[in-house]
Specification:
With 166 residues, this protein is mainly α. It is built from 6 helices and no strands.
Length: 166
């Protein structure tokens, strides 16, 4: 049981670092077409003056999800390789992949929901206040794109000095 809890913690740390670095890289011109696509999200679809909409505005053919998927290949393959080499038991390899999948889902779902007016998460008792804080922190990212790369976790922003609190 302790091994699974430790695996969850380590997976959480590594996965959130991965998300932070990938999101930061989307803001770098060297990331090419994914940078341009992400800037469409920031500057045309959801600028600070028009941050929310009734339905999520899609960028059309967006290369960002493909970029995340390709970048995540080593993250997903590592536990499989460690299991195949006998370094990691199947239960722990599955735990790592489960944490990665959950974090990826939450990252995408929560991000999109931040841009939807009156999203149902605002109305969930207790969670509504937390959700509202996340929305505010993400809004600040749209105001200053060099801050708050986390979507719902901001420990790496604090570590790297990119956190801007509400």
């Amino acid at each position: 049981m302790m091994a699974i809890l430790l695996t969850i913690l380590i997976s959480f740390i590594v996965t959130t670092l991965f998300g932070h670095v990938v999101h930061w890289s989307l803001h770098q011109k060297w990331s090419g077409s994914v940078h341009q696509s992400h800037m469409t999200h920031h500057l045309k679809l959801y600028p600070p003056t028009d941050y929310t909409s009734k339905v999520y505005r899609e960028a059309g053919k967006d290369s960002t999800p493909k970029f995340f998927a390709i970048a995540a290949i080593p993250l997903v393959l590592a536990p499989i390789v460690f299991w195949l080499c006998g370094v990691l038991p199947l239960s722990l390899a599955a735990t790592v992949i489960g944490v990665e999948a959950l974090m990826g889902f939450l990252h995408n779902y929560l991000h999109d929901s931040f841009h939807i007016q009156n999203h149902w998460l605002y109305r969930v008792p207790l969670l509504g206040d937390i959700f509202n804080r996340w929305v505010d922190l993400h809004y600040l990212h749209h105001v200053d794109m060099s801050k708050n790369y986390g979507i719902f976790t901001f420990h790496w922003d604090r570590f790297f000095g990119t956190f801007w609190k509400v």
